[in-house]
Amino acid sequence: MKIFNTLSGQKEEFVPLSGAKSRDILMYVCGVTPYSDSHVGHAMSYIYFDVIRRYLKFRGYTVKYVQNLTDIDDKIIDRANRLGVSVNELSGKYIQGFFDDMTALNILPADLYPRATQEIPKMLEIVKSLVDKGFAYPAKGSVYFRVRSVADYGKLSHRTLDSMEAGIRVEPGEEKEHPMDFVLWKASKPGEPSWPSSWGPGRPGWHIECSAMSVKYLGEQIDIHGGGQDLIFPHHENELVQSESFTGKKPFVKYWMHNGLLRLGEEKMSKSLGNLVTIKEALSKYSADAIRLFVLGSYYRSPLTYSTDALEAAERGAGRLRQVMELKDNSTREDAGRIDVSPYQQRFAEVMDDDFGTAQAIAVLFDMARDINRAKNAGQPIENARKALLSLANVLGLTLNEALKTGFEAGPFFELLKEMSNKIRQAKLEQVLTQAGLSKDGGETEAEAQENIGKLLRIRNVLREQKQFQLADEIRGRLKELGVVFEDAAGQTIWKRKI
Ligand SMILES: [Zn+2]
């Protein structure tokens, strides 16, 4: 397996940090600053890293995945002040919105989402140690990293200190020894949230957060660190230098991975430019599968341009794949004439092994879909190929399941169904949904309500088989509240609705 490493500037054979035989991977991806709704550019980055993580699992690795939340930042403070709410209230609202977006996009939750405001002691410990070792110095209540104290500053972004210095503007009031020195700890202005420190009240700089959370939750060295290409400099360059100076261990990260940026028209999609489409807006028009197909149809390191045409084409593609899942296998020939799925599986692994060639992997799925349709028309059995198609689609996080698209209609049973789907996803049981045969969405006519109750009961049974009793009991309890009574008898669940 090959991965493009920003640090070396080339594709490298993937060997885990703890040795070729190791199956344990430590992965950190920079998270959002929750001060407004996340946009499709964020979706793009987290979809790519979700697929990288899913593919590593598919290849037999165990991945520990941490993603931070920068819940203290100038932008959050400014916006909270303008709206007259507390910083916590504002970030709490947008963190929840972010989680909802990730769930709707079928992005697996991280193992941990540490929050900057809850990790201040670790940050202070690192800053203090950097000062003690001479890598950092306090000035007017702030603390700066001394870039001249290391020989290799600039190695990630492939720049030298001299080339960076040109064009750098020193902000008035900054007491830095060198214009490229960057802040580790900021003296707080009156009225800002602050924490006590040996240099006076202040708050952490952005870069130190990620060093602290990565070191605390994953250890001093990790396999993969990801983010958008706009984070290479200064964020990751600074994270790297402060982490290696603190631990004395190199490399801090074995593979630095950066995704290309999303454009809208000619420009990068960003909050500061104001040209963005939020994830919620995109999901109100397109299914999660379509958004994923759009994103994954392009190599993760390339820039991608958002357009209605491209999204609509992706939606049609999602429809073609879903349609295959709905074909009935009417063949009578048993195993004779079964499609041999191994060449497709092999090609899928080959293209994904080459630095996650998701565009080519999608092409494999469409080839399979076409051949399944042909086999169906020829009266050949298609069940095995269809299963193989779904399992490869799942590696790309595609569900091929209509029910998981947004736009659920209101109605008590459907609301419950939707809520349980979200809970089950959060409990990392995405397979349950497929196994339960959750298909079409709908409203709440009597017939549909009955169908939805049936789905919920099937989900409950799958959960019980998986010994997820708490969620199973919750479904039972909530259905009871809605007037459904049922009993388990002879391996079957019989239910009645009290109207
Ligand atoms: Zn970061």
Keywords:
499 residues; alpha/beta; Rossmann fold; Four Helix Bundle (Hemerythrin (Met), subunit A); 3 domains; four-stranded parallel β-sheet; four-stranded antiparallel β-sheet; 17 helices; 14% strand; globular; binds zinc ion
Secondary structure: elements and pairs:
Layout: E1 2-5, E2 10-13, E3 24-29, H1 40-58, E4 62-67, H2 74-83, H3 87-104, H4 120-132, E5 136-139, E6 142-145, H5 161-165, E7 182-187, E8 202-204, H6 206-218, E9 222-228, H7 232-247, E10 253-259, E11 262-264, E12 267-268, H8 279-285, H9 288-296, E13 304-306, H10 308-326, H11 342-353, H12 358-377, H13 383-395, H14 412-426, H15 430-435, H16 446-465, H17 469-481, E14 484-489, E15 492-497
Structure description:
There is one protein chain. By secondary structure, the protein is of the alpha/beta class. It folds into three domains: 2-264, HUPs (Rossmann fold); 286-402, Up-down Bundle (Four Helix Bundle (Hemerythrin (Met), subunit A)); 408-497, no CATH class. The protein is 46% helix and 14% strand. Strand 9 (222-228), helix 7 and strand 10 (253-259) form a beta-alpha-beta unit. It binds zinc ion. Zinc ion binds next to loops.
Please list the strands of the largest sheet in the order they lie side by side: 4-3-9-10
Low-confidence stretches: 403-410, 437-443
Structural class assignment? alpha/beta
Mean pLDDT: 88
Q: Specify the CATH homologous superfamily of the largest domain.
A: HUPs
Which ligands does the model contain, each kind named once?
Answer: zinc ion
From the alpha-carbon coordinates, what is the Rg to the nearest angstrom? 25 Å
Shape estimate: globular
| CATH architecture level-2 label of the largest domain | 3-Layer(aba) Sandwich
Largest sheet: 4 strands, parallel
Q: If helices are DSSP runs of H or I spanning 4 or more residues, what is the number of helices? A: 17
